[in-house]
Structures are given as structure tokens and as C-alpha cells.
Amino acid sequence: MLALTLGCSHPGLTFSPEKFRPKRSFCVCANGFPSFLPEDVDNIKDTFARNLAQRIERLPVQVPFLKTSIMSSCVRPVMQGRTDPVVLLHGFDSSVLEWRYVYPLLEEAGVDAWAIDILGWGFSDLESRPLCDVASKRNHLYQLWKSYIKKPMILVGPSLGAAVAIDFVIYHPEAVSKLVLIDASVYAEGTREMSTLPRPFAYAGVSSAVALLKSVPLRYYVNNLAFKNLSFDVSMDWMKIGRLHCLHPWWEDATVNFMMNGGYNVIPLIKQVTQQTLIIWGEDDRIISHKLAFRLHGELQDATLRTIPECGHLPHVEKPRSVADFIIQFAQEASGQLSAV
């Protein structure tokens, strides 16, 4: 059972936030959080989530489908790392806060780590209601990479973030040196059936489904499905973390837009990936069977599989030390360093 104490730390992790405290270039509230985060952030007890939330900032990203820049939320490195940039995506309807336990471990190991909110989710300013379909998400990530990261990255995608990563690397192979896929949701065929329905009916149905995603009971249920043996208090706090971005006024419109435009279907793209890939999988995943890890390993051209026992769907939250060690070693190999793990 996870022995996590609210307000303290994840088991086995130690981290001094002052070591990597960045200078702020944005408005900060009295509670230390960026002013653009929903007020409910102050109700979160998890120390690592609070530390990472205080580091979220918005960078202007110019995209071709809007006249104005999108102020895009991310956590970026405080100092130059010793590896190729490691860019951490997140899963469906989530945010950079998924990386609250792994991110400080990567930094302490000298990894040049970015955590980026996928367009439509997280804490970016979407007041202008931009398109949030697959092509827009891909283009937004590319423009952010082109403007700020500027060199080939190790792209990390958990769950649906793995589909985002595979889609991205096929269209922009020059931007990605390697891939890390974690409990990858890459064998779904998207939500295309919704786009074939008459629009008023489709919108009503999708909107109702999306509204349910925001509900406390559903978030609590999914937490207990995704993780093994969470206490009630920890599950409630993690539910608040996972739900926080849903409190932005544009969240529902952005998610409906994504689902009505078909979602991700990267099945035809998997065998086209040429980049070396690390697959990480929780053996006790109750959302996506770990048997699909072996299928994915067989279909990718150059892949290594690492499984984590007694772990559910989000190993980077449940077993952060293991995930961090795998990523650190993979990143150090990419930069020609000797492994420190």
C-alpha cells in the first residue's frame, strides 16, 4: 500500500524545492501560485503537486490558426541540463501536474526537463477558444518546440500522451531524437463515430459526456481504477490535482472540440516510427492491458520494454523512482554519458 502522507512527500522521494526555485516573470498570488491557476489549487495538500504548480508559467506560442499567440502553460528547466531535452507530455484531459514526483528527480540528475500542457488541457489561456483537434495540438507543440526548445528532444508520452507523441514524431521527425511511451493508449480508433452524427445531437451527447469528466465521483472512481491500494485521503487529494484544470471556463469547449473532431487514431503510424523507443508499463494496469505492451514492442522498429511490477496505469505517479531511473538512463545514453542509475 502507498504510504504517502498528505502534505509531506511520496515514499522514497526527497527534494529541496529551493534548489530549483526560478525567478518569476509572471504575476504570483499571495499563496505563491501563479495567478492564472484556479483558486482551488490552494486546497491541494500534496507537497510535490504544490511545488510544481508554483513553477507553472505561460509562454507565448504563435500558431498559424490564430492571429494572436496562445499563452501556453509549461514547466521549463531552471538551468541547462546535461542531456538532450526531455519533454514530458501528459495523458487525456490532464496537465503537467502528472509529473509532480518525477520532474524533480530528473532535475536533480541533470536532465534538461520540460513539462508541457497539451493544447486543450492543462492551464494554457484558451479564452479565444482555438481549435483543439489533433492537427492543432500537433501544430501547437511544434511551434512551442521551434520557439523555445530548438533542438531534437526525447519526447515522453504517458497513456493518450503516447498517441500524441507518435502522431507528432511522424509529422516532425526532425524534432524528436527518441521516444518514451508509458502505458501507451495507442490502439484506440479515436472518437470518429461522434463526428458522423448530426452535429446538434453529437454536440449534446459529447458535451454531456465531457461534463461528466469534471464530476468528483467519476474522477474519484478513475483514480481508484488507475492506482493500486490508495487510501481515501490520498485518492481525494489526487482527484483534486487531476481535476484542477477542468475549472478553467474554456475546458469544456476545448475537450468537446477535440472529441467531435475524431480524436487520435495512430494505429497506422506505429510501424512507421524509426526513432529508438523506450516502452514503460505497469504490470497491473487495469485500464490498458500490459499485454498491449508486447504488441507495441513488436510493432515498433527499435524498442526496449521495461515493466514495473505492482503498478497500475500511471507509473510516473505511482512508481516515480522507477520511471525516473528509466528515463535518466535513456537520456544519458542519448547524450553519450555513462549511466548513473
From TrEMBL:
Residues 86-325 form the AB hydrolase-1 domain. This is AB hydrolase-1 domain-containing protein. PANTHER family: ALPHA_BETA-HYDROLASES SUPERFAMILY PROTEIN, HYDROLASE. It holds the Pfam family Abhydrolase_6. GO terms for molecular function: catalytic activity. SUPFAM superfamilies: alpha/beta-Hydrolases.
